[in-house]
Write a structure and sequence with these properties.
Number of helices: 15
Number of domains: 2
Radius of gyration: 24 Å
Largest sheet: 9 strands, mixed
CATH architecture of the largest domain: 3-Layer(bba) Sandwich
CATH class of the largest domain: Alpha Beta
Oligomer: single chain
CATH topology of the largest domain: FAD/NAD(P)-binding domain
Number of strands: 23
Structural class: alpha/beta
Shape: globular
Strand content: 15-25%
Distance between the termini: 19 Å
Length: about 550
Amino acid sequence: MALRAGDWDEVVDVVVVGSGGGALTAALAAADGGADVLVIEKDTVIGGTTGVSGGVLWVPNNAHLVRAGLDDSRQDAVDYLSRIADGREADPTLIEIFVDTAREALEYLESATPLQTQIVTTLPDYYGPIAHRVPGCKLYSRSVEPLPFAAREALGEQAGRLATRSTLLSLGAVTTLHEDLSGSSVPMDELARREREGVRVKGAALIACLMKGLVDRGVEIRTSVPAVELIVDDDRSVVGVLVGAGAERVRLGARQGVILGCGGFEWNHDMVVSYLGFDVKPISPGANTGDGHVMAMEVGAKMGSMTSFWGQGAMFDPAILGPEGEPAPQMMMGLGAGSVLVNQLGRRFMHGGYTYNDFPKPFGAFDQRYPGLPNKPPGWVIFGPGVKKSRDILTMRAGEPAPEWVPQAESIAQLAVAIGVDPAALEETVTSYNRFVEAGEDPEWGDPTGSYVFVGYDTTLAPVDGPPYYALQQWPATLGTNGGCRINANAQVLGHRVSIIPGLYAVGNTSASVVGGAYVGGGTPIASSVTFGYLAGRHASGQPRRVIGS
């Protein structure tokens, strides 16, 4: 039961809960609208999921595209999002609002903060290979990323409060995404300069720029301050929030509104099991435990898309540990040519080259042929010396013997026993696949060159060679859940008892995805979060200041 209004320890106009891209954009827009704003963050650092992300924003018809003379349009973007969302809890009105406002929100941030962006030319729309079947999809990139930002110079000691990418090896910590994907070599002296001078890239650069804008406006960001419960008045309007832990709890009053931008619930195992239905490994900050969802539900918020999440694939390496010494999942989706992905029955159940958002979905699929959930995680990637010698895999080096933690055997049947799958089924799977490869086709799964594959995925058909044979566990993972509070065009939270819960807003992964969970190109989640953060901040700061008293 939500707390009732009472004595306040502190009163401001707008309280923003969270410090990711959507939350900080909301705080900026509210401050520029004349509101007295306070940002609170549960974690010890600032940035949320955005701060450790690639920092990309998918913005249709953005200024870079216009200057390049590329033919984008509002209708193309709406058609594309609508086709991929395919009506799954996606409000057509909100898709249109996003398309109509994303460019405006980006241009606002570029004028209100030091943020400067560039097109990630190597990141075209994700369904480009089948663009002929997907209206509005483009063969070029609509995705922009922050330019490197000298955070230490701009923020001084406060730069140390920014979240940092520490255990994810897939994206460079001091290189832009364009540099990572284009294969261009960044001079060592430039990389050393960025490291030495505290230059931030990707999501850290975006958050640093937003933080600089808030610092310049005198907006305080308090860390290690968890939000516990929303406070309502007798009319069920949200007028504040209880924050802190134990005896340190305080009541913050909000004359104009509380904006929830505190991430998803992927680190709350009970919620993951209840809503997603299968074990999905989070690749995001551990503070995303669904606090905003629980608080909103307590005051009667409508929830949507709670079974949906931003997908990814993950593997584990015992040599790569998280901040608490726990195994840290790494972004990996199969091993490409020369490998097969199999389920617990030893049978192929997916192709590894699809977009990362789509990759984990088969793990939770009910299979009528083998009634039940035979794909429940983990799956296995089966490969041989050809793959092993061709590349580093996590900390396993190409030219070195496989470490003991990697299952290996002299036959497929022996490998099957080692990983606990049916030897006969796995032998049949590998033999069948190799026969298809020899014929130059893959009818069991379809020729990957004729279907959509992720940028840079090797579609070459190659056999699973050996002996020896190797296996690695393959897990479904998430960059964050995307179900949450249902919102309107101003990011106001919709209610069960009332159409709109006065004084309450939700953005980012605390809200139900305004694009229906469609991940149409690099940066779709951040762009939608920032766009509705912009709308929330503007709207909240335009509300009459309520007398919330004691």
